[in-house]
Specification:
Elements lengths: L2 H14 L19 E2 L14 H4 L13 E4 L2 E4 L2 E2 H6 L3 E2 L5 E2 L3 E8 L5 E7 L6 E2 L4 E8 L23 H8 L4 E3 L8 E8 L2 E8 L2 E9 L20 H4 L15 E4 L2 E4 L2 E2 H6 L3 E6 L8 E8 L2 E8 L12 E8 L9 E3 L9 H10 L4 E5 L4 E7 L2 E11 L2 E8 L3
């Protein structure tokens, strides 16, 4: 902290008092690594620290710093909100981040329909890794120097605006800062910090006398109705996993979805655990542990055979992958059966001819359609009971080299 900067503001501070902020203890710089451990906020409740009378009014920008409101592109945003709420307002994630660790937060860029971007603080309050879309939007980071035309039209409480407002104007609006940092002997280059706690604050950075940087977050808070328990791995194995029993013989109908691998039979939908118990090993997962009513793509391997499958968590709570149900199998064998041994009902397997497959489907009155590409032919067979389910066979030289099994419902 530089004393000259404090002296220049002292008169103004003495006149305006504590204002809307400034009573909380000071905090160090928020860590800036890509994934930063968030606060341990189990049972935290900051509601009593907010001006509840103003909070109960219809949504407006107001002047109180710790209501965590800002006007962006002419619309008022009230933090925290869920990732999906931000998407509903027309913002889309920039980049490919898919998951966030337990009690971590990360800044992710979002873009609106006009191509304007904003760095948004996403926080995982749950005790397990969760998909990005299940995280909480806890605020944002903005730099006017990166938005020189002010296209986001950012406006803070009490009409403080980047690119226009001075440090004196901010102090007049918000009162005495918790901390003043930087400065070059005057108020033109400095940072004013208004801290509710270590993870809830408004930090304002001034350059050349006007507001440039805004860091505005409330990481311990959660939106109304948020239930972190539904995102945390449940230690109990779901009943539908415990009750699964492998079939004892191959089915007579293609659409009972029995599949044989190396003498072991499975019927979709079956838990991933059924494969793992038979010696298959999980080699890759795209999605980690799975939230309630959500999917993940995984790869498993045994005896030099590797294939992909999609698992679905039918439980309301977050579950381990082994407790999720296999819905889709993607079986590929470009060596005509030399590497992978897999068979469906009716004896359909790698190397089965196009004529044999169509004859079997015709005999059972199953609808199918085909589509050719430069290398081979796709044949799609729909489940008579549900068109969302069925098989996709790919033929090269009129022999099956891949089979996709889909049983969603």
């Amino acid at each position: 902290m530089l004393i000259p900067a404090l002296l220049l503001l002292a008169g103004l501070l003495a006149g305006c008092g504590a204002g809307n902020g400034g009573s909380a203890p000071s905090a160090d710089d928020a860590p800036s690594v890509a994934q930063t451990p968030g606060p341990d906020v189990q049972g935290a409740d900051l509601a009593g620290q907010v001006d509840t009378e103003e909070e109960d009014r219809p949504l407006e920008l107001g002047s109180y710093v710790f209501l965590f409101r800002a006007s962006i592109c002419g619309e008022i945003y009230h933090f925290p909100m869920m990732y999906g709420d931000l998407e509903e307002k027309g913002w889309k994630q920039v980049g490919e981040a898919e998951v966030l660790g337990a009690h971590y937060y990360e800044y992710i860029d979002f873009a609106n329909a006009d191509g304007q971007t904003l760095s948004v603080a996403l926080y995982n309050k749950a005790g397990s890794e969760v998909p990005i879309r299940d995280t909480i939007v806890e605020g944002f980071r903005y730099r006017y120097s990166e938005d020189p035309n002010g296209e986001l039209s950012l406006l803070l409480p009490a009409q403080i605006r980047p690119g226009e407002s001075t440090a004196e104007a901010a102090v007049a609006a918000y009162g005495e800062p918790t901390q003043i940092l930087g400065g070059a002997g005057d108020t033109r280059d400095m940072e004013l910090r208004y801290d509710l706690d270590d993870h809830s604050y408004l930090h304002l950075t001034f350059s050349d006398g006007v507001l440039d940087g805004v860091d505005y977050v409330c990481i311990p808070l959660a939106p109304e109705g948020y239930d972190e328990g539904k995102l945390t791995v449940d230690g109990d194995t779901p009943d539908y996993v415990r009750s699964y029993r492998a079939p004892k013989k191959q089915g007579s109908s293609l659409f009972d979805y029995t599949v044989e691998f190396g003498g072991d039979l499975y019927r979709l939908n079956c838990p991933l655990k059924a494969f793992l118990d038979n010696g298959w090993e999980l080699t890759e997962s795209r999605g980690g542990r799975v939230a309630g009513n959500d999917y993940a793509m995984v790869s498993i391997e045994r005896d030099d055979s590797v294939f992909d499958l999609v698992v679905y968590n039918e439980d309301k709570n977050r579950q381990l992958l082994e407790n999720c149900m296999v819905e889709n199998l993607y079986l590929y064998d470009y060596y005509y059966g030399e590497e992978m041994q897999a068979s469906l009902a009716k004896g359909i397997t790698f190397g089965t001819s196009l004529g044999e497959v169509t004859a079997l489907l015709d005999a059972d009155g199953v609808a199918y359609r085909s589509e050719s590409d430069e290398n081979g032919l796709y044949l799609y067979a729909e489940d008579p009971e549900n068109a969302s389910n069925g098989y996709t066979f790919y033929f090269r030289e009129e022999r099956i080299i891949s089979m996709d099994v889909v049983h969603l419902y």
